[in-house]
Amino acid sequence: MASSKRMQPDRQSGLFMRYLFFTIICLFFSRIGIAAEQLPALQGTPSSVTSQIESVDETLPVAVPEPSAKALAHYRSGTVLWCIRTIWELWLPILFLFTGFSARLREFARKIGRHWFWAMCIYFVVLVVLNYLLSLPLAYFQGFIRPHAYNLSNQTLAKWFTDSLKELGLVLVLGCLFLWIPYLLLKKSPRRWWLYASLAMVPIYFFVVMIQPVVMAPMFNQFTPVKDKALEAKIMALAERAGIHGAGIYEVNKSVDTKTANAYVSGFLGTKRIVLWDTIIAQLNERELMFVLGHEMGHYALNHVVKGILCLSVLTLVAFYGVHVAASFLLRRFSRYFGFDQLSDLASLPLLVLLINVFSLVLTPIGFAYSRHLEHEADRFGLELTHYNHSAGTGFVKLQQQSLGVPWPGLVYTIWRATHPSNGERVEFFNEYKPWLKHEPSRYEAYFTPEQPKK
Ligand SMILES: [Zn+2]
Hints:
65% of the residues lie in helices and 4% in strands. It is mainly alpha-helical. The protein has one domain (23-447).
């Protein structure tokens, strides 16, 4: 798997905790998975545009356009970059392990730190910072050079770099807070650690998801109530119809970072919220935006964040068991190179990371298939709530074209990288899913307040 505390799956530094963040973000911050260059702002549009929107025939189908040559180039170069990054993330821990560097670093940390906890922190900090520095050129290319080359980013180098340092700081703090847990379990229960550690991960996942919107996200961007008050009132009315009362709905100034557009649901319990990037508010017309909100309200009402964490917890159990079995095998064969022969040795961290990366690569297709299922259901919820089928289609076509999206990606992309159904599949679903026209029951009717939506 691949990604970070941030919303973008391709930007991150860090080791152990990166896996955690990446996985959570990829699967569970429930983005609608579209990105776009900025269109001329349609927000606060003159009445001519508003009247056009009012007269949209929502029963008309929308054609899925062919991707542009630039979009195909973006897709192909993205695939090459994904391969390079995946290999890099496997190769780096192999290097730390087989050179004996990890064992030497553990010795150094023990001498300096004395107490086991400080030794662990020193070891972790040095390893993660080294990993960060070695990965910096690739991260810079992927996170800064490439989006600018495709005209998908507005971000200044200073913002990119300070964000990158903040991410590093977060990984260091969270790693020092939580890393002792698996090592304690490895020491106390060498045979069953994988079971107890995966159980321990469940509250950690919930904790990270809960603090993410209030602690981490505001470190990078400004979150405010929706600035356009007329729009906010319409969003609140839609939320009431969706059976969501008193939901937090925020606007975030992502236009400083990107020209792409997005929306997502994050948080847990008191921090649960719907977040709209300011770019998506600027790019979509009102009905298109209301469908996107209906989709996000689907995630919110159907508890997709919690379902995602539970799915991740099951995958974690399988992955940790796989790590347990594979690590025993590797330790028997290669411990003389590694400089340690117990998984409970702190120096085993690159081995754990390597194996977690391998097993997450194996398990990613399952997690992503589940994620695509949740996204499809959120689409269904959004359509049933708004009946804006045509506007959903035009919105997604607009975003596909602006974001250099490819409507029908290949099988390998779908299996390992697609957290959402393809744009082509989604638009076709918008075109055909209208049970209310045939007086058939809708799946999520029971969630909606009785008043029928205004058309
Ligand atoms: Zn979604």
